[in-house]
């Protein structure tokens, strides 16, 4: 395992102060020990050293003018990490927490996530420390146009195809696409998550949330169980969380929580999804406003969260779906879930659980679906949008949803069977990491030292 220490040490020297990136790399490398030991060619050909170093890192300033006429400047990023399997694919995140470490960890994870889908897409990620909250539509448009004025040079339908992520929805994708078309004079599928009016795909908005629930259902199916009648904890209140809750209801489960940056809603009888959609997709209000319609619900403000974790994971339930952000489920949270009888954790967010939490859940034999496998529905449907754009077709909701279900089942079975093959049945972290790594590494070997 010395290669892990050496790799992290090298990264700390060449890419200092990128803790989230180190965490993502270490988590993956620990899982890869069995395959690296069984196939020395990967080490001889320096696959690990080549994998952890992006093929290209693009960083740029984004100047824009606010509604008061003041010039603002943000940082923009696009990390084109690995193209062994196809054009770079991964979202753009607009959030004040964005920095090089966040984007690199997300891009690194994206390599394996995209490989697991079985689709011809490489791994990348991008974004900015711009905060869309509280900004007018005009300010967001001006920012997106400035952002794309630099990014357009580096992307293309067979080169790099960004999508949305936190802070980037159909509105932002629309403004960026308009600027791309204005600058290039080309109408092509260079972004995914587009409006249905001009090249978007049905199910794309729902895909990550639906996919994380489909993955959970597959985890339970091998135990002859299902989600029906189960109480479920969900964190977040964006697209992933909302459509995870929608699919949970469709499969007979009951989501009883959701969260935002102000706190947690706990509604024992079941979250009013119509109200959450109104608050978050239209009004853009805090979840505290939920109480105006439901006085039997409880709002737990962030000021009352436990010091060692998150309030949402301290509530008794059968299953948990972290769908907010990275490192939101701590060791103490994992212990609380286990103590409360939780049987399953399926990750809708990227790296939402700390490494200690993951190890504890796996040791306790909890069905645990890591984000790179469980939340791959979003990027899978993005690729289906690319396919529709390339062939100038539009598929029905049912057709895309069926393809999504098949992809999520295949991802689960690939990770499940790989874990068995390497002597750790049930360990989907190991299974997903090895399966994703093998597909990318073998392609890199076949393509030479590039």
Please report the total strand number as a whole number. 13
**CATH class group of the domain at 207-374:** Alpha Beta
Give the quaternary arrangement of the chains.
Answer: single chain
The CATH homologous superfamily of the domain at 207-374: NAD(P)-binding Rossmann-like Domain
In which range does the helix fraction lie? 40-55%
What is the overall number of helices?
17
Average pLDDT, to the nearest integer?
Answer: 96
In short:
Helix content is 46%, strand content 15%. It has 450 residues and is an alpha/beta fold.
Q: What is the topology?
A:
Blueprint: H1 2-14, H2 19-31, H3 33-38, H4 41-44, H5 47-51, E1 56-65, E2 71-82, E3 88-94, H6 100-116, E4 122-128, H7 137-151, E5 160-164, H8 170-184, H9 207-221, E6 231-234, H10 239-250, E7 254-255, E8 257-260, E9 263-266, H11 273-283, E10 298-301, E11 319-321, H12 331-339, E12 344-346, H13 355-363, E13 367-369, H14 371-374, H15 377-391, H16 397-421, H17 428-447
Parallel strand pairs: 3-4, 3-5, 6-7, 6-11, 11-12, 12-13
Antiparallel strand pairs: 1-2, 2-4, 8-9, 9-10
Helix pairs in contact: 1-2, 2-6, 6-17, 7-8, 9-10, 9-15, 9-16, 12-13, 15-16, 16-17
């Amino acid at each position: 395992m010395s290669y892990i220490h050496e790799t992290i040490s090298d990264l700390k020297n060449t890419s200092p102060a990128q803790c989230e990136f180190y965490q993502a790399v270490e988590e993956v490398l620990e899982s890869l020990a069995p395959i690296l030991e069984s196939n020395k060619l990967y080490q001889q050909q320096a696959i690990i050293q080549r994998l952890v170093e992006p093929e290209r890192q693009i960083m740029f300033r984004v100047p824009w003018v606010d509604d008061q006429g003041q010039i603002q400047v943000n940082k923009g990023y696009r990390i084109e990490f690995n193209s062994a399997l196809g054009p770079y694919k991964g979202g753009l995140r607009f959030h004040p927490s964005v920095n090089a470490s966040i984007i690199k960890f997300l891009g690194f994870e994206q390599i394996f996530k995209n490989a697991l889908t079985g689709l011809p897409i490489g791994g990348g990620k991008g974004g900015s420390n711009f905060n869309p909250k509280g900004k007018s539509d005009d300010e967001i448009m001006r920012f997106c146009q400035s952002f794309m004025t630099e990014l357009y040079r580096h992307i293309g339908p067979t080169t790099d195809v960004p999508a949305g992520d936190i802070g980037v929805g159909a509105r932002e994708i629309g403004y960026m696409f308009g600027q791309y078309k204005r600058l290039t004079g080309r109408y092509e599928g260079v972004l995914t998550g587009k409006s249905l009016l001009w090249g978007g795909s049905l199910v794309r908005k729902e895909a990550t949330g639906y996919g994380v629930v489909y993955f959970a259902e597959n985890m339970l199916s091998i135990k002859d169980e299902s989600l029906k009648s189960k109480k479920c904890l969900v964190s977040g209140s964006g697209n992933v969380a909302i459509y995870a809750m929608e699919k949970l209801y469709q499969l007979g489960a009951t989501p009883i929580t959701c969260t935002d940056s102000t706190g947690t809603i706990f509604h024992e009888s079941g979250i009013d999804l119509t109200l959450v959609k109104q608050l978050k997709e239209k009004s853009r209000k805090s979840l505290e406003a939920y109480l105006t319609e439901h006085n039997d619900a409880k709002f737990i403000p962030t000021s009352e969260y436990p010091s060692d974790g998150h309030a949402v994971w301290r509530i008794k339930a059968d299953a948990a779906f972290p769908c907010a952000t990275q490192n939101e489920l701590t060791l103490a949270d994992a212990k609380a879930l286990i103590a409360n009888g939780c049987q399953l954790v399926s990750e809708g967010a990227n790296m939402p659980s700390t490494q200690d939490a993951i190890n504890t859940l796996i040791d306790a034999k909890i069905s645990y679906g890591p984000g790179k496998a469980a939340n791959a529905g979003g990027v899978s449907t993005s690729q289906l949008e690319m396919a529709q754009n390339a062939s100038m077709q539009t598929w029905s909701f049912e057709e895309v949803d069926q393809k999504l279900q098949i992809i999520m089942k295949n991802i689960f079975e690939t990770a499940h069977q790989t874990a068995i093959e390497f002597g750790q049945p049930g360990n989907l972290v190991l299974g997903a990491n090895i399966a994703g790594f093998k597909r990318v590494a073998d392609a890199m070997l076949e393509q030479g030292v590039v």
